[in-house]
Design brief:
It is a single chain. By secondary structure, this protein is α/β, with parallel strands linked by helices. The protein has one domain: 3-Layer(aba) Sandwich (Stationary-phase Survival Protein Sure Homolog, Chain: A). It contains 7 helices and 11 strands. The strands form 2 sheets. A 9-stranded mixed sheet has the order 3-4-2-1-5-6-7-11-8. It has a two-stranded antiparallel ribbon with strand order 9-10. The protein is globular and about 60 Å long. The N and C termini lie far apart (56 Å).
Length: 249
């Protein structure tokens, strides 16, 4: 099995280091091929952006992870996946992305570079698993000892192209969820350099989310697993209007 590990926090991220160690533990290198290709610097909130108008630099890091080919790319998480496949000819069966410092729930999924890498993987026929934890610490990463065997035992990677997984610090269990709603009160603040910077905070989410949403699950201390797809078709609207074809005069 070919496994690619990437993230959006960059090669120096503690979350990447922890993820590599757990993947190495559960997918022994004797029977599986493991590669790491990560952004050279932080690439948060770039979604599935790829680099088109400028060149990218690809560098090998010989001693980053023992026995694991490791590269950095001056691009996005999605670029990392494309470089693996279209430059190195390394077609992963699974792309693990993370562990992101900060949940990717609800609306955040649309912006997340962590999730963007898994979407890019799915377009190339690979399975993708996005992993995120609390912004406060990487304490929740110890539950990868439970989560990774759970994914394998239940064949979850055979049933979905993209899994979005969020792990609270002290989870009570694992639940399957749908994408919820996570509204933000956003504004732009001018700093001393004269530029404007986006800032804000999440709004109350209780009334906006049912008990089966990812937002509700994590706020109630459950590991959330959400099956995602790149297809953004509104299926209810499509079913309502698909027979209403109109001829133009």
């Amino acid at each position: 099995m070919n496994i690619l590990i990437t993230n959006d926090d960059g090669i120096q991220s503690k979350g990447l280091d922890l993820l590599v160690k757990y993947i190495y533990k559960y997918f022994d290198i004797a029977n599986n091929s493991i590669w790491v290709i990560a952004p050279k610097s932080e690439m948060s909130a770039v979604s599935q952006r790829i680099t088109l108008k400028t060149g990218i630099d690809i560098q090998k890091h010989e001693d980053a992870f023992k026995g694991i080919p490791t590269y950095t790319v001056t691009g996005t998480p999605a670029d990392c996946v494309k470089v693996a496949i279209h430059y190195f000819g390394y077609q992963p069966d699974i792309v693990f992305s993370g562990v992101n410092k900060g949940y990717n729930l609800g609306n955040d999924i649309l912006y997340s570079g962590t999730v963007g890498a898994t979407f890019e993987a799915s377009l190339s026929g690979s399975c993708g698993v996005a992993l995120s934890c609390s912004f406060e610490s990487f304490e929740a990463c110890r539950y990868l000892d439970v989560l990774l065997p759970y994914l394998l035992k239940n064949h979850l990677l055979e049933k979905s192209k993209v899994l979005n997984v969020n792990i609270p610090n002290h989870p009570k269990g694992i639940v399957f969820t749908h994408q919820g709603i996570l509204p933000f009160d956003s504004t732009y603040v001018q700093q001393e350099d004269g530029l404007f910077y986006l800032t804000g905070h999440p709004l109350e989410v209780a009334e906006a989310n049912d008990e089966y949403s990812d937002v509700y699950a994590v706020h109630h201390q459950y590991i959330s697993i959400t099956h995602l797809t790149t297809n953004r078709t509104d299926k209810d609207a499509y079913e309502q209007y698909r027979e209403k074809k109109s001829d133009l005069a």
